[in-house]
Specification:
It is globular, with a radius of gyration of 24 Å. The N and C termini lie far apart (about 65 Å). The longest helix has 11 residues. The N terminus is likely disordered. It is about 10% helix and about 60% strand. It contains five helices and 23 strands. It has one domain: Outer membrane protein transport protein (OMPP1/FadL/TodX) (Porin, Beta Barrel). By secondary structure, the chain is mainly beta. The strands form two sheets. Strands 1-3-4-6-7-10-11-15-16-18-19-21-22-23 form a 14-stranded antiparallel barrel. The protein has a three-stranded parallel β-sheet with strand order 2-5-20, with no helix packed on it.
């Protein structure tokens, strides 16, 4: 019974983490989201900090942008039981603030910050269980993101840039004592917050007028939660001690390489195309993992069995995601946009006890923009977009169970940008 109390306490201090930052899934800026996220060679505003920092050099002027977005996920599981609970983002509001600033000597700076509302940050961790969890549209979508970058244009046709993304984490220590005699469990979980920095680097080249080629590398990023744990149990006056380490990722983003092209065959028409490679096999999953110390790794105590039982392996894949976006400009500075992206599943269908769910999805987007103020010193514009991700039903068959899952997620928003 003492061991059950420990397991229960571990679950109570933990719920679930996410698999990605917001931009990996939804993109950045209303214009780029409306164009399917094909921004590697196309972006020319604060979203370049994410898509390709070199494109900061293409900002037409100083600009500041504020956007409000809303995400609604509607994924379900059918296993013959009504109203099956699914861990997903549900409804979530987002606010983004960004800027791009032109400096002397062909240098440009930019930043982009996104956080959720009403809760700017949600962190949850849980041990592996048999509940249903959406890998890409889970609770981790509520983690904030912050990026800043710099670009330099040595010649008119070439620009280079680098940016840094900040991720938060924590290094915690937990002391736990459990006793059957007193029927008490005492624990202390404390420690400092930590931060990790990921790099984004890009190059943009203009070989012909109105043709831009871009390439971007994004390093692996995540906020790590590490908790060296000291557990003491007492059964019939006999103490057992084990010192495992609990660890988990908070908002994981894999290594990525994106290549893209943007071309304007007509003055009023722009087309962007991207392909992004995501290296997921380094990811251990969103669940809390336990690592016994070397001296306990082979022990057959109940605590050691508990530690090993709460770890699991997932089959994550390398994936290539293509995107395409188009923009047509009508007279009076009215822009109409559309985009499409195909996102392959990043993890195989479940075969063990854990149910981490993902499947191929089709992302369709539309949007518009309008510049409603244009003076000598100031320009004001507004952009709106709507994006729908459709995940066709998939069937999972494994020992003792069979179910289908699928659904959709919608997000839309409004951005106001001031150029000066």
């Amino acid at each position: 019974m003492a061991f059950k109390k420990i397991a229960l306490l571990t679950v109570c201090i933990s719920t679930i983490s996410g698999a990605h930052p917001i931009e990996d899934l939804l993109g950045a800026s209303a214009r780029m989201r409306a164009m399917g996220g094909a921004g590697t060679a196309l972006s020319a505003d604060d979203s370049s900090v994410y898509y390709n920092p070199a494109n900061l050099a293409r900002c037409a002027s100083h600009l500041v942008s504020l956007s409000a977005d809303y995400v609604q996920s509607n994924f379900s599981v059918d296993n013959g039981t009504p109203n099956v609970p699914v861990d997903q983002v549900g409804s979530q509001g987002l606010v983004s603030l960004g800027g791009c600033f032109k400096l002397p000597y062909d240098i440009s700076l930019g930043f982009h910050v996104t956080f959720g509302l009403p809760n700017p940050m949600f962190v949850g961790l849980r041990t592996v269980d048999d509940q249903f969890h959406m890998m890409m549209y889970g609770s981790g979508l509520k983690l904030p993101s912050a990026m800043a970058g710099i670009a330099y244009r040595p010649i008119k046709q070439l620009s280079v840039g680098v940016a840094f993304a900040l991720s938060g984490g924590a290094t915690l220590g937990m002391d736990m004592n459990a006793s059957l005699a007193t029927k008490q469990v005492q624990s202390l979980l404390s420690g400092p917050a930590t931060a990790s920095v990921a790099a984004i680097a890009g190059v943009t080249y203009e070989p012909l007028d109105s043709l831009f080629l871009g390439i971007t590398y994004r390093s692996e990023s995540y906020g790590a939660m590490l908790a060296p744990t000291h557990i003491v149990t007492e059964v019939a006056g006999i103490q057992s001690i084990i010192d495992p380490t609990m660890e988990a990722y908070l908002g994981y983003s894999p290594h990525q390489i994106a290549i893209g092209a943007a071309y304007s065959p007509l003055k009023a028409l722009t087309v962007g195309v991207d392909v992004t490679w995501y290296y997921w096999p380094n990811y251990s999953g969103p669940f809390l993992q336990f690592t016994p110390p070397p001296e306990n790794a082979s022990a057959e105590s109940a605590l050691s069995k508990f530690v090993r039982a709460h770890n699991t392996k997932f089959s994550f894949r390398n994936v290539f995601m293509p995107r395409i976006g188009v923009e047509y400009t009508f007279p009076r500075d009215i822009h109409v946009r559309a985009g499409y992206g195909f996102r392959p599943a990043a993890v195989d269908l479940p075969t063990g006890s854990a149910n981490l769910l993902d499947a191929d999805s089709h992302n369709v987007s539309f949007g518009a923009g309008y510049r409603f103020v244009k003076t000598k010193n100031v320009e004001l514009s507004a952009d709106v977009y709507s994006m729908l991700a459709i995940m066709p039903n998939q069937t999972v068959e494994k020992a003792g169970s069979r179910y289908t899952f699928g659904g959709s997620a919608w997000n839309g928003g409004l951005a106001v940008t001031a150029g000066f």
